[in-house]
Amino acid sequence: MCEADEMAGEKLEQGEHEHEELMPEGDKKSAALEIEIGDDETRPRSSFRALIISSVFGNVLEWYDFGVFASFSTEISKAFFTGGRLEEILEVYGVFAVAFFVRPLGGFVLGIVGDKYGRTLSLQISVVAMGLSALIISLLPTNDVGPYSIGPAATILLVVVRSIQGLSVGGEMVGSMLYMVENVPERWKAVVSCVPMASAISGTGMGYLVSTIITALLSEEARVLWGWRLAFGLGVPAGLVGFMFRSCLHESHTFSSAIKKFGARHQNQHPFFYAMKNEPAALFVLSALLAVLCGFYSSTVWYNEAWLEMFYTELVRRGLSELQGRILNTLLIFAGLAGGSMGYAAFIDRGPKVPLHYHILGSAFLLAIFSPLFLWLMSFGRDCLLCVAGGQLAGMLCFTPTIASLSLYLVSEIPTQLQYTSIALSYNIAQALFGGTIPYIATAIVIHSSNIVAPSFYMSGLAVLGGGSILLARLPRVRRMHQNLEQTMNT
């Protein structure tokens, strides 16, 4: 399989040479300079096919498990918790958030590995650990349901395994995102760098799709006993496929040359700790701004994917049935978030060249203004199915510019030698504080305010914070910090 992938890589490289023949003379010189900088031209190049498949399967598995967990929240609450309906849901959302709270630690550890020893090693560790975690969850005993119940110890085991899962996914998205950006031609950068985001979103959608099929085929009792286990077990093969293709990958010239030059100047020092010692303020400010931006991203993703379905099936007075809600949410995730973001990424590559941060600013502005309107439309429930679908789809489409441009923007803000550790920390801290807590916070806001539209104002506030972080990052003082950090890492 690896030999076939390398042959495919050679074909891609031939296509790039043909493209270079059509380049203006100035662009040819730039391309030649990039080749000259490369560290080892005899090293085999990763094929485009292995590149795409390894990213897709890894990110699909990461978010498939989260989608299954969110979708089977009712069944999992009955299997592992006791209490009232809303109390059980809040407890499950608490466990859902646990995996997010440990993500920063996982991102830091895998980021250290990725910046020092290579992106591919970190990505292989991540996908193996994710697959094992999914398998273990599918085999866990329950609290007091079925023949394999062991009491409260089962709940503790669930929390422990979810924590391990959170550690393993801490470097998945960022690692695959960096690897994609470093390995694709400039003319495809937005589309290909959007693949990890779109595949992660599709993974959640696939989790909902599988849960929809299981819900339609099994009784409630069967779903509580073993239906949710089947859903988790079906994700394990994705981990195996992802690992097989990742074993064929090679480090990019961009990363290899940057880390080789840094290692020649600063023997036995890790780039992240070197930056912490020499430019702590710049590293902290840039990472903090990225964390706020990622908070806007992650909260909006999980608001759309995990909470809105529960909103228009459980909280709306005449809500949709559970099966209707899952079907609608799954279709909109694929069409609105995944499909829409890839389409917008193609527009970035082929359309007018606009600074990346303008796309994110426009997206944040639209969501800050219109989020309450979209949620209000969805509150009509089964009285107006078109309002529910239209409100959620409109919000998703307003968000697609952020998804499409986020990868390239994050990479542009941090030097190559620091990207894995710094971005993984920022991204996963944001996931812990904003993404993992959204289902819990939004539900709690509805319960305590008795206003089902109230969570939309929280989302509008997060959109304002995301847009504000972009504006702060453009300030002259912050740009000087960025330049100083670049110079520190390259001199």
Automatic annotation (TrEMBL):
Residue ranges crossing the lipid bilayer per the database entry: 50-72, 92-114, 121-142, 148-169, 190-214, 226-245, 281-303, 323-348, 360-381, 393-411, 423-447, 453-473
Alphabetic keyword roster: Cell membrane, Membrane, Symport, Transmembrane, Transmembrane helix, Transport
GO CC, any one term: plasma membrane
Subcellular location per the Swiss-Prot or TrEMBL entry: Cell membrane
GO MF entries: symporter activity
PANTHER family registered for this protein in UniProt: ALPHA-KETOGLUTARATE PERMEASE
Protein name per UniProt: MFS transporter
Lineage, broadest ranks: Eukaryota, Viridiplantae, Chlorophyta, Chloropicophyceae, Chloropicales
